[in-house]
Amino acid sequence: MLTTSGPDPGPTPAGEDLLRRLAPQVLGALVRRYGHFDAAEDAVQEALLAAARQWPEEGRPANPRGWLIRVASRRLTDQLRSEEARRRREETAAALIPRDEFVAPPPGESRAPAEDDTLALLFLCCRAELAPAGRIALTLRAVGGLTTAEIARALLVPEATMAQRISRAKRRIKASEAPFGTRPVGFGIRPDRPDRSEGSARPDPEQARDHAERLADVLHVLYLIFNEGYTATSGGDLQRADLATEAIRLTRAVHALLPADGEVAGLLALMLLTDARRAARTAPDGSLIPLAEQDRTRWDRAAITEGVALVSDALTHTPLGPYQLRAAIAAVHDEAAGDEDTDWVEILALYELLIRLVPGPVERLGHAVAVAMVHGPRRALALLGRLDEDERLAGHHRLEAVRAHLLEMAGDRAAARAAYAKAAGLTLSLPERRYLRFRAARLAE
Description:
The protein is mainly α and about 450 residues long. It has helices at about 15-35, 35-60, 65-80, 85-95, 120-125, 130-140, 150-155, 160-175, 205-230, 240-255, 260-275, 300-315, 320-335, 345-355, 360-375, 375-385, 395-410, 415-425, 430-445; strands at about 100-105, 110-115, 235, 430. α1 (about 15-35) packs across α3, α7 crosses α8 (about 160-175) and α14 (about 345-355) runs antiparallel to α15.
């Protein structure tokens, strides 16, 4: 049933955000009901296109999610009807769904699951049958709604390679005929304790290892979705608040399942502490405001308080992990009254621990900045020389932007200007490009 308030204004940013937010929920509903992950994803894309065409003219439905599920279900059913095994597949799918899992829809709307399927979809995509790289790529596509190009940039790999990973992962999901449940199976039980529901007398090391790997992938995916929302890798907007908000929502859901897991708490804390700065990161015209120049009175103090409490408790009571360390670094920034009050010695110590656990290029880049703030830019520039040899950062604007900042700190204006200009030419984010060009132009004066 459509609203009577007149035509929808069309594919506005708010409307696009709604469709992006609903897409994984609709996909989860279809996979739960019918299986056939790959075909379900195609059907959801067709439903989203139909919504983009019809809602501006006919008005947005009172239940947008139910409308999308109904349209996508019709598309998928039409496709399955043409296959000889349609009846067997529908019977198999129906056997997986408890009768009380669906609620009566409003008149004119489709039947919809009684809960948000996004979390279950998240864990489905991180199944052990998939290679780790495929799990992450597929989940970013299905749950995060990122394009193949965005995923490739987030993971620092070529776009063609990423497309192949996603295709292989879809084929494995289809071949496995993996069941889809409302709850991530096994994640309500700590892997270091016996599973009494199955009469197990002792922990299963293989199951515990599988749980740990899947959870690590889930957290990695949520972290990447949040990062794309906090700083978009392309386009005219610096931030995609819908993605960041959805990543926080899903991480809260995982934390509710695993409240004693320190890394889950650390990731949630990291997101809250970082997202707390959102309102101060851009000027009214959308231009980027760097951390050192932000109006800290605009930071979300409630989010900072919650984030600090989460990471403090995790660091006190659970084994140390990378997300906890990242959250602790964010907390040091957020608790400083001003940029000049930032405790860079503590941040450097935390980075030293982090690069021992995760010696990745992004972590080492952050470590170099901390080294510059404590020991001076020349020592940090020497560290960047080693990162030049890392293929994952080759041609990435972040390396050149940090280099430019350090050269500027060292007083080498000409080299800094060239590095800023090079970084500006490498980024696909328009706000970042404008900011980097501004810094380069300022050094030419």
